[in-house]
Amino acid sequence: ARCSHSTRPTGWRWCCFMERPLTLTRGSSWAHCSYCHRGATGPWPLTFQLTTRSAMTSKGPEEEHPSVTLFRQYLRIRTVQPKPDYGAAVAFFEERARQLGLGCQKVEVAPGYVVTVLTWPGTNPALSSILLNSHTDVVPVFKEHWSHDPFEAFKDSEGYIYARGAQDMKCVSIQYLEAVRRLKVEGHRFPRTIHMTFVPDEEVGGHQGMELFVQRPEFHALRAGFALDEGIANPTDAFTVFYSERSPWWVRVTSTGRPGHGSLFIEDTAAEKLHKVVSSILAFREKEWQRLQSNPHLKEGAVTSVNLTKLEGGVAYNVVPATMSASFDFRVAPDVDFKAFEEQLQSWCQAAGEGVTLEFAQKWMHPQVTPTDDSNPWWAAFSRVCKDMNLSLEPEIMPAATDSRFIRAVGVPALGFSPLNRTPVLLHDHDERLHEAVFLRGVDIYTRLLPALASVPALPSES
Ligand code: MET
Ligand SMILES: [Zn+2]
Ligand SMILES: [Zn+2]
């Protein structure tokens, strides 16, 4: 198929599809690749000077790279918590499967919660598969703080696409799909099967999504040997890759005490005792923060974080309440002694006085680490591709929680990787956005990663 793109500025001179420079006459109003006849989508490496950036921007849909158009279509599906339109997302992926000639399986893990699995079979069914996971839900928005409608996928004159999910993580879903499409169109086959899973519910904990899915026979039937899941953008030239995660502990401390008239010095109030616990926990927070600040080798994910996220209690100004509570979002570093840490929490409650208890709304107890040395053949393949592509990697512990924790907990090694560099970290933030050239470069990266991962020779356990 000849590309229908027209009137490219001469700055566009790299074919993302073939990863080759274009043979393009200077001043030509046409820029199509002489190898694949598709529109040019470069240049890369980006110099990110204003002139280059505006030269890369496509003005109208007829000029836009088809992968970008697909990305923007997906961004317009309102899979926003707390009431995501999962039906529309599932239909979208079914249509992708049809268009790409991939197998498509729908697994309803809870009523209304469907995991969609798209499968590209490998040539050697004896080998374990590659799992490319992405979640379909996105977090809510504060619309009034956005420069553009967060569900319109507006693209500005520089090429930034504004949308909830642009970074977290609708980009990755489409990058997987587009990389697979390219490889299929080029006629490749690989020994290992590639499964793409599109899962619901991640942003509220994954309990109706990946947590259930990994326990099902349909998951075991995928025979995943290795998984990729989401990472976080990196504002520098480097790419961050996550080999482990902190464990979310959501803790509610409830304090009970003597009630009474608001004008009196009541003894043993719920508020005083809650205040003590809050102080202990916030002092711990400060200590961890200082530890992070004072050691340049420590990254955010290596220390334990905590935030006070809710305070509840009380009915009137002049009534001392008998109960008050404080909720905390702890993210516990993987090297922490979990038992000792829980005892610490309990002792802070006890030290505050009688009638102070804690309960867990979330308590992940199974942190796993995916090795990042060449003893891990998946890491060897992943890092080799990055080296060959001249991408510098920054291996880290994920500060937040993703579905990777469920995947690793059932024994499947996983890396958290969103191929987004030179991008401000805007996940869950106002004006979440992604540059189209960064998005397209991510497709290139998966186009190199997937052949390598899906061709990892049989492991000792597989022969
Ligand atoms: C702890 S549930 C996970 C929800 C979200 N991904 C987060 O890290 O906060
Ligand atoms: Zn995410
Ligand atoms: Zn998120």
Automatic annotation (TrEMBL):
The active site is at 137, 202 (proton acceptor). Its cofactor is Zn(2+). It comes from the Eukaryota. It comes from Macaca fascicularis. The lineage of its organism: Eukaryota, Metazoa, Chordata, Craniata, Vertebrata. Zn(2+) 1 binds at residues 135, 168, 230. One of its GO terms (molecular function) is metal ion binding. It catalyses: N-acetyl-L-glutamine + H2O = L-glutamine + acetate; N-acetyl-L-methionine + H2O = L-methionine + acetate; an N-acyl-L-amino acid + H2O = an L-alpha-amino acid + a carboxylate. GO terms for cellular component: cytoplasm. Belongs to the peptidase M20A family. Homodimer. Interacts with SPHK1. Its EC number is 3.5.1.14. This is Aminoacylase-1.
